[in-house]
Amino acid sequence: MASLGLFNYIDLWFRFLQGVDFHLGQVHFSLLQVNRAFFLVLALYWVSKNLRIFFHFWLTIKSGVTSAVQILLYRLGSILLVSTCVVIVLHYLGLDLTVFALFGGALGLGLGFGLQKIFANLVSGFILLGDKSIKPGDVIQLKDTYGWINFLGSRYVSVVTRDGIEHLIPNENLITGEVINWSYSQNLVRLRVPVGVAYGSDLEKARELMLAAAADTMRVLKDPKPAYLITGLGDNAVNLEVRVWINDPQNGIASVKSDLFRGILQRFRDHGIEMPYPQRDVHLKSIPEIPFRTGPEVR
Fold first, then answer.
1. 121 lies in some domain
2. What are the start-end ranges of the E strands in the chain?
3. What pTM does this model have?
C-alpha cells in the first residue's frame, strides 16, 4: 500500500479490485470487499486473542472460582469470541446468515452419526467441568489406572500415575464408568494393613507393636488415630489388621503400606512374635490285611 501510494497507483488498484466481482446466489461482492474482509479477520483475530489472554488472567487471578469453573468459563468465552468474529465477517460480506441454518442442520445430522464419539467426549468434558466432580489435582482411580489429574481437555483427561506414565482417558469414560475420586470432598484416606500371627502369640503385645509401628510411619496421621482389629481366625494364623489414615493420597499409597509392613516385621522379630507359614497335618492310615484263598493249581 505504501508503494502504491508513493507512485499514485492506489486509486487504480482500488478500481481494479472493485471491478473483479463474484456472485454467490443472490449475494454480490467484489475482490475489494474480500481484501478488506481479510484484513478485518486479522484485526478481529488480534483483538479476540488479547481479550482471551485478559479474560484468562482475570479468571486465574481475580475471579476466585475453582480451577474447573475457570476452564469451563474460558472455553465458553473463547467459543463466544470466535463465533462473534465469524458473524461480523459474514455480515460485512453481505451474506445472509439464514442460509446457513439449513446447512448447519444437515451438517449437524451428519456429524451426529459420523462423529458421535467425538461429540460425546466434548459434551462429557463440559459436564465434568460444570458439575465439578473431577478437577485438576484430584486423585482418581479408574479400573487399574491410579493417579492425579494433570489436565482437563475438551476430548480427554490427562491422568499421571506414580510411575510417571500419562494416561489420556476419554471424557465419556469418566461420565459413564465408575470412577473413584480419592480427593473429591476431602483428602482423608484410610489404609488397611493385614497381618497374621501364630495362635500361640501374645495378641496384646502384637497390638502394641502394630500401633507403635503405625505411629512411627511417616505420613500416617495421629488424628484420626490408628486402629487395631482381629479380623478372623484362619487355618494357620490369627488374622489381625491395623487401619491408618493419610491426607495426601496424591503422593502414593503403596509407599505407606511398605513402611508400615517393614516396621511391623522388624518389631515382631525383636519381640519374638511369630508369623507362621502355612501348615498341613498329614495322617497315614495302614491298610488292613485282607485274607484271600487261591484255587487249586491248574495243570
1. no
2. 21-24, 27-30, 139-142, 145-152, 156-160, 166-170, 180-181, 189-197, 227-233, 238-246
3. 0.52
Structural domains in the chain (count):
3
Q: Which three cell numbers stand for residue 288?
A: 488292613
Residues in the chain, pLDDT under 70:
1-32, 63-69, 93-115, 279, 290-299
DSSP 243-291: EEEES-GGG-SHHHHHHHHHHHHHHHHHTT---PPP-------PPPP--
Domain that holds residue 149: 134-181
In the chain, the amino acid numbered 62 is K
16 and 44 inside one domain:
yes
Q: How many CA atoms lie within 13 A of 77 on its CB side?
A: 18
- 173 and 218 in one domain? no
> Quick one: cell of 5?
501510494
DSSP 59: I
Tell me the pLDDT tens digit for each residue of 130-171. 777 788 888 888 777 778 888 887 778 888 887 788 888 888
77 CB-near residues (< 8 Å, 6+ apart): 52, 55
> How far is C-alpha 142 from the chain's CA centre?
8
Answer for the pair 48, 34: CB distance below 8 angstroms, yes or no.
no
State which of 44, 70, 97 marks the end of a domain: 97
**Where does residue 164 fall: left (phi above 0), alpha (psi -120 to 50 degrees), or beta otherwise?**
left
Provide the 8-state DSSP code for 138. Answer: -
Domain end residue (candidates: 97, 120, 155): 97
C-alpha cell at 283: 495322617
- Can you give the CATH number for the domain in which 239 is found? 3.30.70.100
DSSP state of 297: P
